[in-house]
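Prephenate/arogenate dehydrogenase domain-containing protein
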Amino acid sequence: MSTSCSSSSLKIGIVGFGYFGQFLAKTMIKQDHTLRATDRTDYSNSCSQMGVEFFRDVAALIEADNDVILLSTSIPSLAEVLHSMPLTRLNRPTLFVDVLSVKEHPRELLLRVLPEESDILCTHPMFGPVSGKDGWKDLTFMYDKVRIRDEVICSNFLQIFASEGCRMLEMSCEEHDKLAARSQFITHAIGRILTEMDIKSTPINTKGFETLLQLMDTVMRDSFDLFSGLFLYNRFSVQELIQSDEDLSSLRIPTSQRMSEEPGSEKTEC
């Protein structure tokens, strides 16, 4: 086991410094970690205000002395981002961590592209800037130690989330994607279906309908890139759509039966 990181303070390079990357960075800075960032968008002003060193060139970030490279890109862009990195310029073995909402896809890419000496930790913080705005206590942080040699750096990185009170959940990437297809993807799919249906608030909203409106609002705060990524890069999502279609078919009432039912025979509140 390596002990190249002698204290809990880490030098973390963030690739992808958008909304989610900045959200994570605020807590990491609070914990006194040293942060660098790069992005295709110029976030130099935001970084300056936060105390983060900004690199316009990903090569310069790779060449910096990082303990951790944190990949906070969109799901569809991960392959392009990885292939754009001059990985031969890494100064030493480095821990690569992804925070994508699917897990098998980044795991396969990282194993295929990264140098053999690079460690790999696949993670999914099951929260974001909205749900985590008041702190991370009791929010779930899923992780899979795909290839870890330097247990000290890995442990120090995981401690970022554990020390904030996260519920730390070690799980395989495959199991994560199975469960996410039945939870996160279905949630996003229903929210976007409601949006396509142009569902609006009414003067006679029930509590159940209010919940649907809230779901739609929450889902639409996330990008379409996230939704498409949850579908295209999680092999279990297609199975869920097929099953959902079959389940909807089983709920269809034949026209003859509908016509024979008396209006008002049952009262329900949804």
